[in-house]
Amino acid sequence: MELTANAKINLTLDILRKREDGYHDLQMVMQSVTLADALTVTPAKGPQGEAAADLRFLPTGNRNLAQVAAAAFRAATGLGGEVDVSIRKRVPVCAGLAGGSADAAAVLRAMNTLTGAGLSPAELADIGARAGSDVPFCVLGGTALAEGRGERLTPLSPLPYCHIVLCKPPFSIPTPQLFARVNVRKIVRRPDTAGVLAALTAGDLAGVARRMYNVFEDVLEPRRAAEIAAIKAVLIDRGALGASMSGSGPSVFGLFEAENAARDACALLKESYRDVFLCEPAGAEFA
Hints:
The protein is α+β, with helices and mostly antiparallel strands. 32% of the residues lie in helices and 27% in strands. It has nine helices and eleven strands. The strands form two sheets. Strands 1, 2, 3, 4, 5, 6 and 8 form a seven-stranded mixed β-sheet that branches. Helix 1 packs parallel to helix 2. The two termini are 20 Å apart.
């Protein structure tokens, strides 16, 4: 079975509190985009399922999140055998775009179909939570408010059609490192989440764009923060209605109404960065 695995961006990312279990309660507005990996899922040729990607440094076997998801599906349903997963990567890794989670979600959807399990989207998302915090959203896709660790999802009105420019600078930012720097009581700038929700309901793209923010931007190392800010400045200068960092970074995105402005921004960023993409909002995986 062949599938696509859409990346996600965070229109907002807010950290509300640190929990007693050491994790943080988050509040995020998440959006699927058409930048996607391509997966092929087939019955395993050997006794153990393998995950093979066109990037050699990615883990294979049960160390790959796609195989973690397949094992979670079998454990939850008692259905399905081992599968081999072939992944053609287009979503940058370690980028704040949930590329690995999207691949895991695609495997869950494939196994649901191949085994005839008939699980509902919510049931499949619950299984996905066992593989990773972003997997439930990637199972459902579209536009959603994510709360808790990201597993509590509320579908939202879709982001109005627009052009999205994504740029990943050539470094990664370990997520635990950013969480360790966050002092929830000292967060000064936060996204206007309520305003974003209202703007989505009204179909107001500009209203969404000017209220976006990611609180992780305030705890970046100075040199990383400067590069993120510089990319955002290029996007805004070239006509983006708003720009923000996605997830724990370092990918930055801008929302554009005009395609020609988005293409101009892409061309300019490609002079300095390899991983620059032009994409659009993607709808929910389940109509």
